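re: the backbone from monday

yeah here it is again, tokenized this time
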């Protein structure tokens, strides 16, 4: 039986009572904490959410509201498949900042590691599965979405199994190791009537979204050139990323994909031609099977040229620049997990102005998972569905073909804007238009 104190606390947490009748008011805590001051709660409660009145002058940025997350029982449950670096370092912690998604299951080949992680995140033993047991997910109603975070060559089977178990699927990028697998994944989800989203986190990251919105609004003038670079320097030559069968390729599908996808997402157009070159350091054991550096130029119907480069043998650099006739913009660390900085350069009277936009810090993994959660709850197509991943697989195949033949490769003309995307997230500023 709940004590009066616990009952008040429960009501507060479930939002069934406003802060004005909070513990402070009820139990007189404010009087203790604030001496003789009268307790006045400044929060306002409307429609189950809490907000605060402005604290600063109108010349200042408005402060953030509390996040107002859904109560845990109403959030969409996710099971994460594969407990490697990305899952443990980024994805599982990001559930802590989600408003609509929550972690309800784990799938791993390492039962001991899974036991430890399950205890850290409060996942019951019966919601932990080995890869072979994925069909049993069907019986777990607390799991609505399966998030596949395995090496690239294992995405296809895991996505198909998850869909066959009746679950919606969020799948890490690159979607697959070739076009045929990507098609199979889309088909499996269609047959099972489940949603498939590819985890293109940059399309949910606020600086990338803001730049897309401004570029599409015409603020930069006529965009003619894009410059996208994503490089890193790989270590251990035996890791799966250096093995073609598991990775599908080298720097291109892993990090070059960000240059490709972010450029397409910003413009909303599809390239009509690509020309590419590949270069790898000779006798380097890391590049026996996969490429180090890929440089490719995409030509778009509007005339935009996108200069893209990725590498597995260069010091880390992750920049994205958009050059227009009136202004240019740049996101430093555009493709990183955090630390993006968005700059705009344009004339300001008799000077050149370079301003840094401060959009605050938001966890892009949380935003991405919340988007999937809302798509499931509201039955909406994800912004980055399987078709978006398939298009990238086709373009990467063309990039490899061009590098191999030394000739440009023409691509099918796609006239519809955002042809492979679902609607932009409701709560994000992804450029429409
Ligand atoms: P990782 O090597 O750290 O983890 C892979 C996990 O898969 C490990 O737990 C490993 O035990 C398991 N696994 C199962 N079968 C395996 C096999 N046959 N060989 C190797 N490992 C096997 O990799 P990661 O960095 O977590 O990457 C996982 C996926 O996430 C990849 O598709 C990668 O492209 C993607 N990724 C995306 C981002 C992003 O920013 N969105 C960042 C990193 C990785």
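seq for it, each position gets an aa:
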């Amino acid at each position: 039986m709940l004590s009066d104190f616990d009952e008040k606390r429960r009501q507060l947490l479930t939002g069934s009572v406003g802060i004005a009748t909070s513990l402070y008011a009820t139990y007189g805590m404010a009087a203790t904490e604030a001496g003789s001051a009268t307790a006045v709660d400044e929060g306002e409660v409307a429609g189950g959410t809490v907000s605060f009145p402005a604290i600063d002058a109108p010349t200042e940025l408005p402060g953030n509201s509390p996040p107002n997350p859904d109560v845990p029982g109403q959030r969409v449950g996710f099971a994460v498949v594969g407990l490697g670096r990305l899952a443990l370092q980024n994805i599982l912690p990001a559930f802590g900042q989600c408003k609509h998604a929550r972690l309800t299951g784990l799938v791993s080949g390492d039962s001991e590691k899974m036991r430890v992680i399950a205890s850290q995140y409060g996942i019951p033993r019966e919601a932990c599965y080995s890869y072979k047991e994925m069909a049993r997910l069907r019986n777990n109603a607390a799991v609505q979405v399966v998030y596949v975070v395995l090496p690239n060559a294992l995405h296809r089977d895991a996505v198909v199994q998850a869909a066959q178990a009746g679950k919606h699927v969020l799948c890490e990028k690159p979607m697959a190791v070739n076009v045929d697998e990507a098609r199979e994944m889309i088909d499996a989800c269609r047959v099972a009537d489940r949603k498939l989203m590819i985890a293109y986190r940059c399309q949910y990251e606020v600086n990338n979204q803001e730049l897309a919105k401004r570029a599409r609004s015409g603020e930069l003038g006529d965009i003619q050139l894009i410059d996208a670079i994503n490089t890193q320097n790989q270590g251990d030559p035996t890791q799966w990323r250096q093995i073609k069968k598991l990775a599908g390729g080298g720097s291109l599908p892993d990090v070059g994909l960000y240059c490709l996808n972010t450029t397409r997402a910003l413009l909303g157009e599809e390239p009509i031609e690509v020309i590419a070159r590949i270069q790898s350091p000779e006798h380097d054991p890391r590049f026996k099977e996969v490429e180090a550096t890929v440089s490719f130029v995409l030509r778009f119907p509007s005339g935009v040229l996108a200069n893209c480069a990725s590498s597995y043998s260069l010091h880390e650099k992750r920049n994205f620049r958009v050059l227009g006739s009136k202004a240019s913009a740049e996101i430093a660390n555009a493709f990183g997990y955090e630390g993006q900085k968005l700059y705009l350069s344009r004339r300001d009277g008799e000077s050149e102005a370079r301003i840094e936009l401060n959009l605050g810090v938001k966890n892009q993994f949380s935003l991405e998972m919340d988007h999937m959660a809302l798509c499931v709850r509201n039955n909406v197509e994800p912004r980055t569905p399987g078709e978006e991943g398939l298009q990238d697989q086709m373009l990467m195949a063309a990039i490899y073909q061009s590098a191999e033949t030394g000739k440009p490769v023409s691509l099918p003309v796609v006239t519809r804007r955002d042809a492979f995307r679902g609607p932009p997230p409701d709560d994000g500023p992804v450029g429409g238009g």
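Residues 82-87, 109, 149-152, 154, 172-173, 199, 201, 240, 246, 254 surround nicotinamide-adenine-dinucleotide (CB under 6 Å). The two ends are 55 Å apart (CA to CA).
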